[in-house]
Amino acid sequence: MQPDQPNLTIAVLQCNFTVGDVWANARVMANGYAQAVANGATLVVAPEHALCGYPPKDNLRHDAFLNENAMAAGWLASVIGSVPLAFGMPRKAPRAGDYGQKSYNSYVVAQSGRIVFATNKVYLAQGGVFDEWRVHKPGTFKIFTYNGLRIGFPICEDIWHDRVVNQMVRKGVDLFIVPNGSPEYVGKPARRHAIVAAHVKRTGIPMLYVNHVGAQDENAFGGGAFYVNGSEADATVFLPYWKEAIGMVNLTVSGKEGYFSLPDGTETYTVSNPIRFMLDAAVMTTRDYILKSSSIRKVVVAVSGGIDSAVVLAMAIMAVGRENVIAISLPSMHNTSTTKGFAQQLCDNLGVQLHWWDIGDTITALRSKYEDVFGHPLKVPGDTAYENTQSRERGQIVMAIANRQHAMLLSTGNKSEMAMGYATLYGDMNGGFNPLKTIYKTSVYQVAYAINEALANGNSANDALGYEAIPVALITQRPSAELDDDQFDENSLPAYPVLDAILTRFIDEGMDPADIIRHGLSPLTYLYGNVASSTFTLMKMDSNKPAMQQWLKTVDASGRHESYIVSPQCVVEVVRR
């Protein structure tokens, strides 16, 4: 790096782009660019695939979509002056890839009315929510020179591998700017910070990280733009999480080193605790799914007086505002006065009208008609047919309400219930979106307290309540679907702390059931000290997904081997001797 290089003032456009709406996305960048330049920016950058939105998926298989991106990029370039704008977009490849891929995942620079530079993503993300190998060709990178500085743009997945960064270093880059379309999970920001810090420590070259904010289907993007300098071990986060923002960061060249710094008065940010992180992600994902999917702006929530529907109702209000939320309670003869009271108190606290629709007579009539037709009772011990009729009746009613009110029904099942199949098809599984689908039951309780704290202090959708939104007595009550008298979740499932610990290891950590059995006792004992070590048994649940079943050898404490067929519905239960 040469001494006395001019400084750069880089503006980061942390915007909520919409997949497929390329012209709207182009206008968002044009407006952000104008604002940034007016505030003194000498380089403006946007995230990976900012023009088409991320992830574009099968849109990239259509020539018309790629052509539309090219036209929108041309228009965007036409309104760009001497200060460059760098942004991500798909670009047509000269030849299709081995799997018919038609495009590169590219990062381009517009300046003085035209596209002056383009580089391509080398490592395509694959697995989990990513399927870039199917729709993009892997490309090669180039280095952008501007104001005497050589800038490397490793794109998202490229920094999760050393090779691209190392090759850019050998080409003499002075700084890295990393455009991303990187969705969130709890702990993901810390992983990003660590990866960037490792690159900077190894190379001595500062790195700026830029990400989307907003959501597309199940993908939540948290924003939180940050940089790491060679002399620093920690990341400096200068844009907020979960909010659109335009931020400025200076690059100063001193001697042979460059470093980022913030203009005076710039706020910095830290990652919220994991539970608040879950809440913010769920609220943003719910909001954007509604706003980006259709013209629907209202939601329907069936409120039972239990924890799951209470949390979903509060999330819905935080996402779209109480004026766009329709709350309905549909009790049967098995719902207690306590839960009905909780449902009313919850809605009163949140400022939402609660509509009542009693289904008791309908269920009684159905039960009677079944016996008339078939000559035996619908309700028999050990059978769930009767219980499911209530859930399905509710499902039919709330879907009718949603259709007539031009609203979207939100379902309320948590990840623990979904993993175990503890739900009713065409009943409580009905809905256009499920805010709790990635949140285990034990975390739902913690999210409820986080909601109370958030709403007590105010948030973007509501004024501060000044008191608890979700009654603590509702949160701490014994969980029950109330589909029969004296029915509780623990009659059908292990205690949620034990169940969730096992499901986390099986689903999220990919641990084999045999390993959970062999090695799970120590962490279970640590988490739940009242569990004594000894024997493990497998509690077998019926599965309607035989393709997912597998043979498993398990070992108990005595060394005896037993074979089981297991599926995601199977759980390990710790049995005290």
What brief labels describe this structure?
alpha/beta; disordered C terminus; 16 helices; 3 domains; Rossmann fold; 35% helix; 577 residues; 6-stranded mixed sheet; elongated; Nitrilase/N-carbamoyl-D-aminoacid amidohydrolase
Summarize the SSE layout with pairings.
Blueprint (H helix, E strand, L loop, with lengths): L7 E7 L7 H17 L4 E3 L17 H16 L6 E8 L10 E9 L2 E7 L5 E2 L2 E2 H4 E2 L5 E4 L2 E4 L9 H9 L4 E5 L8 H16 L3 E4 L2 E4 L2 E4 L3 E3 L7 E2 L7 E10 L2 E5 L12 H20 L4 E5 L4 H14 L4 E5 L7 H14 L3 E3 L3 H15 L10 H20 L2 E3 L5 H6 L20 H17 L14 H5 L19 H13 L4 H7 L1 H7 L7 E5 L10 E6 L5 E6 L4 E5 L2
Parallel strand pairs: 1-2, 2-3, 4-8, 10-11, 11-12, 19-20, 19-22, 20-21
Antiparallel strand pairs: 1-17, 3-4, 4-5, 6-7, 9-10, 12-15, 13-14, 15-16, 17-18, 23-26, 24-25
Can you walk through the features of this model?
The protein folds into three domains: 8-271, Nitrilase/N-carbamoyl-D-aminoacid amidohydrolase (4-Layer Sandwich); 276-490, Rossmann fold (3-Layer(aba) Sandwich), CATH 3.40.50.620; 496-575, no CATH class. Helix 6 packs across helix 7 (307-320) and helix 7 crosses helix 12 (441-457). Strand 6 and strand 7 (130-131) form a beta hairpin. Helices cover 35% and strands 21% of the residues. The N and C termini lie far apart (69 Å). With 577 residues, the chain is α/β, with parallel strands linked by helices. It has 16 helices and 26 strands.
User: Low-confidence runs (pLDDT<50, min 5 residues)?
Assistant: 1-6, 521-577
DSSP E strands, number: 26
Annotated CATH architecture of the largest domain: 4-Layer Sandwich
Q: What is the 3D form?
A: elongated
Helical residue percent? Answer: 25-40%
The whole-number mean of residue pLDDT values reads 87
- How big is the Rg? 27 Å
The count of domains is 3
- How many helices? The count is 16
Query: Largest sheet, described in full?
Result: 8 strands, mixed
CATH superfamily of the largest domain: Carbon-nitrogen hydrolase
Say what the CATH topology of the largest domain is. Answer: Nitrilase/N-carbamoyl-D-aminoacid amidohydrolase
Q: For the record, what CATH class of the largest domain applies? A: Alpha Beta
Structural class: alpha/beta
Report, as a whole number of angstroms, the end-to-end distance. Answer: 69 Å
**Beta-strand residue percentage:** 15-25%
